[in-house]
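Morning F.,

Quick status update on the modeling queue. The single chain you submitted on Monday has been processed. Sequence for confirmation:
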Amino acid sequence: MHVEMYEALKKKEKTIAVVGLGYVGLPLALAFAKYFRVLGFDINAERIAMMQQGIDPSNELEPEAFENRDIRFSAEPEALKEAHFFVVAVPTPVDDHKVPDLRALLGASKTVGQNLKKGDYVVFESTVYPGCTEEDCQPILERESGLQAGVDFKLGYSPERINPGDKEHSVEKILKIVSGSDEEALKNISAVYGEVIEAGIYEASSIKVAEAAKVIENTQRDLNISFMNELSIIFDKMGIDTREVINAASTKWNFLRFYPGLVGGHCISVDPYYLLHKAKQLGYDPQVILSGRRINDEMPAFIAKRLVQMLIQQGKSPQNTKVLVMGITFKENVSDIRNSKVVDLVRELMEFSVNVHVTDPHASPNEVAHEYKLTLIDEISNGYDAVIVAVHHDEYKELDMDYFRSIATKPFILMDLKGIYEPQNGDLVYWRL
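Structure tokens below.
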């Protein structure tokens, strides 16, 4: 089997272009740049300028990650002419109606297509529904380049598995699924990724299988968490601590230990909608996936309503209360605020006329203001009627009950959404999912 593309890249006769340098594309581009000549391309010139200075705009990578790498960064589409192996890693979100938003992906396909040459490779990493690469992206590549897939250029799909905020599982240490439009494409793509991925390569039988594998990984997690969220609603009505139930049930060897919580981010709260979209196109209305999504999307409203009920039980009127929400990023120890379900929780509380203060040691106040029209407080004050610890940041693990007592009125409510602290009695009402 010919692995000519891989060998040409290895000898640096040809260049890899990574298109889209977010939390997925940048670490991958830098990993490739240890062994290959790489062009990092992004349409955001400000982000490119930061990377040229060795700064990761996503705050995930240290400056050392840029050192001794054969990479140059550009926001100029013409620069892509020099590349022969394109990796597309642009975001694939959903819109306000939970419908897949493919604008960035189709735009990237157009840009790559305009720079595609005979013998080139295009590999997509963005999360999509099965069939998207060949049915939506391939025609654009062919139209813009005047070339034919399979004859003039090769196509592949290798789903990203980056875990933001996780310093242990870097891109090199996560097993990689690869797929190709034919056997030769698969072997070359496998060899290229195999050069940088220490954890190993899994060769999927087709592009559609690889696309489907990606989308069900996160859908499975979404469903498991939605089951726990539903249980937490039921057990809350019964006055039972869900964590204690999970701990007890976990003594059985085949019980899967998932926890309730706010499900946000780019993957778990988004990917199921891609599968739903495709299933509906095919005339099938999924039941289980949709109900799981519905439960997870409704959790912010449930928590807000529960807090308001507890405040009223204490004889407090919601519009005269002050609540501190700690953490607004979509997960612990990251600065990324996109798809944060905490924002939905804050807005739900505001609907009840609660005075909400929001703080986060990792989030950018400017980004929060720009993205959500919310203001992060500069300094935590006191006199809070309730504190909601919404994100499991390391900084919050160090806090104890004396700290919460120092910033709260008596009696006060501590909502520990991530179950960081031990249940408390006395002058506070402790509540967790």
